Amino acid sequence: MLQNSTVAGMLFLSGIAAGCLGIGGAGTAAVAAGAAAALTIATAAGFMRKRRATEGLTGFNAILTGCAVFTFLQPMAATWALLAAAALLTLPLKSVLDRAFSKTGCSSLTLPFILATWAVLLTAQTAGIGPAEPAIAPTVAASAVAIGQGALKGLSQIFLIDSWVAGCIFLAGLWAASRRAALLALAGSAAGMAAGYCCGCPWLEVSQGLWGFSPALTAIAVGHTFRDAKAGWLRSAMTVTAAVMLTVVIQMIAAPALAAAGLPVLTIPFCAATWIMTAVMSFPRRKRPEN
Asked: Which residue, among 70, 69, 67, 45, has the nearest Cα to 57 in the 3D structure?
């Protein structure tokens, strides 16, 4: 979640564990095991390569990949082998992609996770690894409580977890690292929910936070991590709002196209919107002619 904080990291891991145990939603214990294994593998490899493992930059793509692999695939021996390979793959991918994005003022963000996960899913199709049994989430009627839980689930879905309790823990982790980031994440998730619902997306998807996780990340990135420190609050608010809406539009376009290929959209909307908005923010403004 773009935070360099040990306390936040501990809370994020606690949130993953809580969500995967089914606290506050439908959980899958294998997802927590996969996330922990991927994080351990990538961090150990990062220390061996003497990269910036101490800042967590070698592990975040891997832990997301670990969550994704067992969200979509059955927990069997072949899946574990693919997970280990994918966790290691995120390291060179990040190194290469970060160099490619170095001149843009941004980074590769979660693109290594996306590419590694897609590679695993495509390999699984040819290796005969079946999909995981989908967790059955109860249908909830639209209400103030459901909307609040949905906004929190938008935070938990960043780690592919359907749990409002996990979302609360993730929010606490963000708050410990940066109050601004926490507020932006919650606002981004809520705005993504609202935009998805207004555009006719199924209420079940909206209530599960599936239209909130990418906007939440975009809000943190554009409004906090890569923000223009010289911009006033009004301009910053307008930029974040535009970024969140752009994220939803990209998801509406990309999700059906990727689904046709049997691939999930993951955090592609967040990455694309953040790259576009950081490019726009870095574009030099014209100076007014002096009279």
From this structure: 45
